[in-house]
Amino acid sequence: MKKNIIACAVSMGCLFANVPTTLAADTPTSDAIIYHVTFPYSNDQTTIDTLGLNTQYASSAIMSNIIAGVMYTHMIKKQYPELQFNEDDMTTTLLGQLLQESGLHEAIMNTDFSPNQATQAIHNPDFKKILLSAGQGGPYQINDYSKRLPDANSPGSLGLINYDAVRKTLDYTIADQDSGKQTSSLGPDALDDMYFAPMTAAFYRFNDINRMKQLASNDWYVNKEAWDTCWTNLSDPLLAEDPNALRLTDFILNVVYNAGSYSAPLQSYLNVCVKKDPAQLANMNNYNLSPQDYRDAIGSPDTTGDTYYRYPRQVSFYIDQLFGVNLEDAGLNINNQVSLLAGQFNRVFAFAVTKLSYKPNKDKEELTFVTASQADKAFKDALAQLDIKSTDSFTLSNDSDRKAIYQLLDVAIGNVEKAIGSDFNAVTDKGPIDPTSEIQIYTDAKIQGQMFLSASKAGANIVNNWMTPNTHISLPVDASIDQMKDSGVDCTAQAQSAFAKLASEADPEHPQQINVNFQNNSCMISIGDYTPDVPVPPVPEGEWDPAKIYDKPCEKVLHNGLSYHNQWYTTGEEPTPEASANWGVWRIVGKDDDICKS
């Protein structure tokens, strides 16, 4: 998750000014989860918010997140059976994520919530609108949901939409993801749906493991050695004998999500995983340490990043409250008892699972939803298999009750998979190209200049992109190209002509694409047969990247053995000694005409 202004606004430490926070005098002692906290905790923190428990809204949110959490662990067990983890903390991490990243307090919750409606929002319309704005990731702040991870050009990279189970409800295409169209679009309403949104977070977090494994398959990845060693440690069955060490899995995956795969916090936690120092492990979930004391306790050399080092503990702190853990030593006096019926889980399970899809025919692209009868039968069969009655009650503060819930849901999910003949972790790497609905535009790998594309549909702008080398943009067939030009040459008319031709002559059996090049101040726009993207190896860190936008002066790059500084904004222009000597945008570092300091 990459923080930006809006993400900050819905995260700890910078909440909206017009969203009231819980006052210290009003801090409850039961039937509530206190969240948006810092450590060490105290009741006079002005950032805290409260989720009232034992309401229909809260119970539905808890159940839907536990169901999605079991889906998360179910897929992990199926695809990575060697991985060891704490069942409680992995299963409930999504609920903690929801509380920390947006929240469920009265000022932002959906006040029209009804437990009997299968589709409804988590949040009120105003807050939902903010969460679904372009570049955001809904209430779970999965802000890169619309992208392949770790990146679009690495073989094996997958995005959320590549998972068959969620693609039909999300209702955008793999092509929308790969072209960048979805990234610049509003988020689907489903990202804030009470029963589907937790599932999107589950699949996104599951995909984080694939993201890390793809990165670590490359020798150039800075954390390769640490990740490989850590994964070996996390796969050791003996890990389960040490409760502190068993927390490494959920902590590290939380940091991958929250801080990123190149972050200093991830390096710190990977080092803890590699060393398995008992003192560091014992302090990993310590609620009583200030930011710097905490970093010192886990052996981190970092002196910044308080937010990222808090996050895994915050998630754990909120779930401890839900489970009735005594937190008086951490400064919080609260005693919660939440009990839920198996029949209640049955209802929420059906609401969630019937929003998931699968391919009835693996050779075709068509997706179909799990039916209500399939979901209900799967759950009732699980009840019978485990000798549980729908009237049986489960108390979340009871360890054996929680284990029984997880087992019931896991068996029910497995029953659905058997009924539909498909695993929920099934993926489709590439979607079909339909030239009657979308037109593909490709930029040449050696394009010169800084071509800019603007396009609209029904009067609304849908694309504003620099056409860097190897850019792939997909436009709806009923869109319009408004401009395509370099600073000195206008190629708009040629682009519009090619677009109109493909729109009017689309042949599903022989899809074509628009090829864009620009050489020697000349537009070179042509129509050719459609060719799928070819993966491009990532550019080593620090070297010149022809596809990168260098929007700040004095970024240092290495190219063909020489170091250069850009003097102004540029993209796609190759650094060369000849251009440097003739007042080009790139200047050799240390030369008199380089305005940047070495």
From TrEMBL:
* A GO molecular-function descriptor: carbohydrate binding
Superkingdom, according to UniProt?
Bacteria
BP GO terms, sorted: carbohydrate metabolic process
Q: Name one GO cellular component term.
A: extracellular region
> Which SUPFAM superfamilies is this protein grouped with?
Carbohydrate binding domain (SSF51055)
The positions making up the signal sequence are: 1-24
**Where does this protein come from, organism-wise?**
Photobacterium angustum
What UniProt keywords are attached to this protein's entry? Answer: Signal
Q: What is this protein called?
A: Chitin-binding type-3 domain-containing protein
